[in-house]
Hints:
Structural class: alpha/beta
Strand order of the largest sheet: 6-7-8-9-10-11-12-13
Helix content: 25-40%
Number of helices: 15
Number of strands: 16
Strand content: 15-25%
Shape: globular
Distance between the termini: 47 Å
Amino acid sequence: MLLKHVFFNNKELDILVQANRISKIADTIEEADADTWECKGKAILPTFCNTHTHASMMFLRGLGEDKNLMDWLNQDIFPHEAKLKPEHFYPLSRYAILEMIKTGTTCFTDMYFEVPETIRAVEEMGVRAILPYPGMDFFDEKEADKRIERATAFLNEPSPTDRIKKCVYCHAIYTCSERQIRGFKALADKYDTYLQIHVSETQKEVDDCVAKFGCRPVELLYKWGIMGPKTLFAHSVHFNDTEIELVKKTGTVIAHCPTSNLKLGSGQMDLQKYLDKGLCVTLGTDGAASNNSLSMISEMKMATLSGKNKANSVLAVKIEDIWKIATQNGFNAFGFNAGIIEEGKLADFMLVDLNNQFLCPNYNLLSNMIYAADSSCITDVVCDGKAVMRNKVIPNEDEIREEFKRATSSLLSG
């Protein structure tokens, strides 16, 4: 693949992709056998890594509005999820991936059920994913042992492609026993993979943890040996100074989900403080049930505005910081050499139309992408050196939409 006259670093250049990597960036490149794309009027940018979502929850978008987290879960989410059958997950996951590609995401971490169906969807649609075996034993030790056994079998099966990494997740300390959380961390260590868990999403979670265990959630998970550079804490809103130091000390990764946090009234992360302390912060949308979008473009804007508001400073959460959080930090956290346009990096990138109304005038492309852009700006998306969207069209997208509608209809009428 050869990109001609593409806008990069404030000038037009040629970029050559060979196999799945960016092999050369130069003023002019001639490669007779390459699939040549004329890119005049388009800019190249790295794609996003969405480090926290629940892909198949797409069918819950718009349900359970204007409720706090626990009412939302118990009154709307859990009852509707009980209707899910294995055959629902493939069309729901495909539709979520469709939305992610349209909005510039080529890598996501998931937390949901029937993982083989999501693996099937990811493999087919050509993106990257970190897909965990789910854990939620509700403090039943026999159930914990079953899940540890099943997770072991899951991790023993090879991934169908290098684009997919298998891992494990525990929902939260209020739905999972110590036995299961420790067991899943032992599996993550044994298989050199990742553990994901929701942590300190709400003040109630923190208060309940203190009442039950005599310490805060991060302190508890540190005592249990759960933290480390291959552990991801989703949300992470309510950390005190001691917890921030434990996160920094262990290299634990944070997935910031500002839209979901604000929508469910969970609180505002002090993002600039986390950055100042040197924490590894990434960005996630959460699921479409609580966001209600999987757009990382929207999430970047929310993260900057929320961060400035929390810090009470216009100087907080600069555009370069949030762009790195949404791209390079996420890819790096999960061992993918992507998130930046550079020779030798994996060829995950998007092309944006510089004539789009949201990108004019182009004084600062990153500013435009964070504060003004939407999906209409993105014309092409490439993952692992292959086009997953070309000229705004994803293969089989009409079929994907229709299958999603049928699955949603059967779930909500059942």
